[in-house]
Amino acid sequence: MVVIKLRPWILFSIIHLLIVGLFTVGCASSTPVVVKKPAPAESVDPRLVAANTGFGFKLFHELAQGDPGQNIFVSPASVSMALAMTYNGADGATKEAMAKVLELQGMSLEEVNRANAELKTILENPDPGVQLTVANSLWASEDIDFKPEFIGRNRDYYAAEVNTLDFSHPSAAKAINNWVKKNTGGKIDNIVERIEANDALFLINAIYFKGSWADKFDPSETKAGLFNLPDGTQVKLLMMSRTGQYGYYQGDNFRSVRIPYGNQRVSMYVFLPEQESGLAEFYRNLDAANWEKWMPQFTETTVQLVLPRFKYEYAVNLKDTLKTLGMQVAFDSEQADFGNMCPIPPVPVVYIGDVKHKTFIEVNEEGSEAAAATSVELLCKGIPQIVNMVIDRPFFFAIRDELTGTILFMGTVQVLPN
User: Which of 6, 155, 172, 223 has the smallest number of CB atoms closer than 10 Å to its CB?
Assistant: First the structure.
């Protein structure tokens, strides 16, 4: 019997590997053009699975390097799908850069779209013990005309809900956030903080997962225990415990366990680095090639498993991360080419302004609940930026003669009568 007690670092391993294991599957609203819809999927193009896995590990490593010692929880599937929808509007050097970062070279746009349609269909039909939804939407400014082909591909292949909004209206951001809240089981309710005057389009992906363990933990076996933090200190928390048959694999400097949900179509993989090595050393071997090497090596073993209960949220702006990975041109207001998205002219340049990502995770005796939302914000250089300034607190002011530079008056306002 193997005993696995999740000691130092394990929470951080769970953070990444739940989503990689869970969401990687192995085997003016314009009038849309007619696009031949994909047939019901029975399998996913392995090239897309490999691309998403490779991109996911690259993304994770960049985030881990930028914030060592902190929790990270990302959904490569959500980020990849949101950027794939955006990719449909890219052209030229921008399209090439996005394909390289997303590892889509060698696949035509049609193949990418069909594979994502297959992936969405299969992910949403896992097994009775798992609830998994993947939703996409486009939110376009009513002031910009988008190409029917771009809208049509996203609607037909990604089942994207297409909406046209008056972005100047205060309710526009609320409409987007309400959609995200609805499609993440209420776990994420604010992906768009505000809409600026030069916003052209928001492409949103939302993923929601809720799965019951194939073999649930007995709550009466949950006891208080100590969890070791990276700085050597300890915190007291509730530790679940169960002895049973699990897929188990011992690699170089780590041990790992597969914990299935429902009918075992979806599983959580937990990797525990040896105490003397830690996550930093484990990360050096954590890549797509080793991941594929490790997966077939799990064998059924009697495991005494001790796993912490936990719940938290994570939010990150991926703009700098994606630029570091090679997508700089897509964010460049002078060089970005999204000519397959909207006609030019009248719009001089459309470019990515921001990519925001939010997630939620909870693990307990019953199973796990997770959610992710990704927002790709497209800006239009042709629309002047409007800065919002509300004078609603104490301020300094002066009256100046602009010709001579003479200050005629100066003062502060701190108290005003009702």
Answer: 223
Q: Is the backbone of residue 238 left (phi > 0), alpha (psi -120 to 50) or beta?
A: beta
Nearest residue to 225 (alpha-carbon basis) of 233, 242, 237, 243: 237
The stretch 371-375 carries a mean pLDDT of 97
* Dihedral sign computed on CA atoms, order 240, 243, 247, 249: positive
The tokens 């002078």 sit on which residue?
334
The answer to whether the beta carbons of residues 167 and 143 sit under 8 Å apart is: yes
**Partners of 130 in the beta sheet?**
211
pLDDT tens digits for range 184-206: 999 999 999 999 989 999 999 99
Cβ of 209: how many Cβ atoms within 10 Å?
A: 28
Q: Where exactly are the structural domains of the chain?
A: 2-212+311-380
Model's pTM, two decimal places?
0.85
Beta partners for residue 135, in sequence order: 206
CA neighbours within 13 Å on the CB side: how many for 40? Answer: 2
Element (H, E) at 279: helix 278-284
The token duo for 180 is 């995200």
Beta strand ranges found along 74-157 (DSSP E): 130-141
- Smallest CA-to-CA distance from 97 within 81, 113, 86 is with 86
Residue with tokens 């969401």: 23
Superfamily of domain 2-212+311-380: Antithrombin, subunit I, domain 2 (3.30.497.10)
